Amino acid sequence: MLRKLSYLTMIIAAISILSACSGSSKKSNESDELTLSAPAESGALELSEEVMSDVIQNISSPVEMAAIIKATGVDFSQKILNDADKVDNYNTSYKRALNLGVYSADLGYINTFDKNNIVVSYLVAIKSLSEGIKVGQFFDFNALKRMATNNNNLDSLMQISISSFNQMDSYLRSQKRSNVSSLIVTGAWIEGLYLTGNVIEQTNNESLVNRIAEQKDIINIIEIIIKNYGNDPDFAELAQRLGKLKSAYDGVKITTEFAEPQTIEQDGKLIIVQDEISHVEVTPEQMNAIINEIKSLREFIVS
Q: In which element (H, E) is residue 272 found?
């Protein structure tokens, strides 16, 4: 079933908790802010805030992916995470933004399995990257650190995280840096698929197989978004690699069944909600090809 999830919420929570971590981080001497303010070429698709929001809401959250992974009974594996010690290798805004997404997804996986012994290193890594792309100012590190160490404050932590990320996203857009937000989302999305693909190879879990197969619709939109900034060579290469993953999904079939609409009350008003159930058809060979392309793309991102 395709479910509308708040994907930004995951990133916020990850960045927030991580940012909450105290400690110094190295600063690169390079200054290469991603400041593209126009689409790749004349006539290219302009992506509104509403379009981006809708895409983000439909992307499977790595936190949810991690919960499904844990439910399979498979053991936690640190070796499939991106090594936190590699953070200093990401010395351009492009790499920082992509891997901020990657580490955010890793942190969701770590937290789901309650691996407190390695949380700190990932928090420090995310803090370093968020400051490297000049968005660290939107997080109250001390407050977040206090809440992150108290399970009773998780709801408050999530709310502050959401608020912080919304401010960061608005700032990036106002500074003509919406491409940075696109990279963060892409990095986290790919990492979530990568973690899931590793577990599928161990368990062949049907729920995980279906969840990855459902991303066929999302890859089409992600590719369009990244292509929109294709006048930058880095974005052009990323779009080309996303195209290979998109091709691996060609044989996957998704059919949608509409259930009876439901009427619910929201903010004192009655609204109609249309439920959709998606059925997926994917062969083992197709899934293997998809997972291999996910691995290849992820290796490119974290290298």
A: strand 269-273
Strand 276-281 vs strand 253-258: parallel, antiparallel, or unpaired?
antiparallel
How far apart CA 263 and CA 265 sit, in angstroms, is 7
Residues in the chain: 303
Q: What is the pLDDT of residues 166-202, one digit of tens each?
A: 666 667 767 767 788 888 889 988 999 999 999 999 9
The whole-number pLDDT of residue 184 equals 84
> What are the residue boundaries of the structural domains of the chain, listed by start?
7-23+46-252+283-302
Mean pLDDT computed over every residue of the chain: 75
DSSP 4-40: ---HHHHHHHHHHHHHHS-------S--------S-S
CA distances from residue 247 to 190, 194, 197 in whole angstroms, order as listed: 16, 17, 17
Strands 269-273 and 253-258: unpaired
By the 8 A CB rule, do 108 and 63 touch?
yes
Nearest CA to 278 out of 250, 255, 252 is that of: 255
Sign of CA dihedral 114, 297, 55, 226: positive
Which residue, 144, 148, 151, is CA-closest to 165?
144
Residue 43 has pLDDT above 50, yes or no: no
Helix (H, G, I), strand (E, B) or coil at 92: coil
* Contact call for residues 165 and 14 (beta carbons, < 8 A): no
Q: Which range among 102-116, 228-242, 271-285 has the greatest average pLDDT?
A: 228-242
